[in-house]
Known about the structure:
Organism: Burkholderia thailandensis
Largest sheet: 6 strands, antiparallel
Distance between the termini: 11 Å
Structural class: alpha+beta
Protein name: DUF4123 domain-containing protein
Strand content: 5-15%
Amino acid sequence: MSDTYPLWEARPGNAMTDAESVSPVEALLAELQQRCAAQGGATRIVVLTGPAILHEAGSDVMGALHADGAHAKADVQLRPGQIDRDYWPSLIELDFKRGQSVDACRIALRAAVEDWQPDSLIEGRGHRIGALLFSHAPLTDIARHIENVAIQQRSDRPGQRLLGLADPAAFEGVWRVCRDDQRTRLLGPIARWCTVDRWGKLADHACAAANELAATHARFLGFDDAQWVALSHVRPINRAWARMRADGGVVRHDDFVRLDESMRRARQYGLTDPADLELFALHALESGPDFDLHPLAQALLRDRPEDVYYSRAIAELDGTQWDEIRKAHRGIHQLIEG
């Protein structure tokens, strides 16, 4: 079975069973309603939108979500006075018992899927829908929690960093880096943090002990130095993925999940420049996550002077040599899949 999944194609485990009769958005909506009902028969869902600046005035997405005040709303106030409110996400409460809420959720899911599409990536639109949250907590409590955990104290240098929790690509990276106890603190009063992921699938993020520790209102997740390094790889990885998808490339799921390992090796080669790290990640997607271990790449990486950027060093490889590297990667996959 192929492990390459175009954005509109269901991955194994997706609720979509008849792609010809059920649209991807309707399948996502049905799956979301099922997950909501599984939360003790709940009908409430909280939509975390992307920053206000991403939403055009009068857009159908915000029109449906606001619905003339029919749905409760709370801003996630990120550092008032320091961060402009145009960059604040917001929370909107929906109730699946109401047809208006179901319609709003459908439109939100459509926007979430569209924003992963190549044309959206080319234009750099960003993600209008960050997540769909399951929680019994009041809307204001959820907002205050996200405000707290979105800003983290660095351990590797002075200062703090804003985590892009309302961006599903960024949240995926943060979740990947977190230990189990940190994931529990990250969720706080949120039982499930659900996103439409880059594969067009509903991705659940949950911890068994999340509700037990919700009352602690932990603010700092306690990332160590190694985790901060890993967090610095999230943006280069996401930008590389977006570049490849925008150019019409197909990303193998198995290759993508190995990019963290590739980026750790990039650091071992002494790569620190953000543009170099992004290019390295792009090469890993294009030519295989182990492309750098090929003798042709190794010769350049090991001999690269400290004052020479990766982009300049790797430019010495010509098209024929890149073809040889990619051919070796394909050969490994054929052996594994055979």
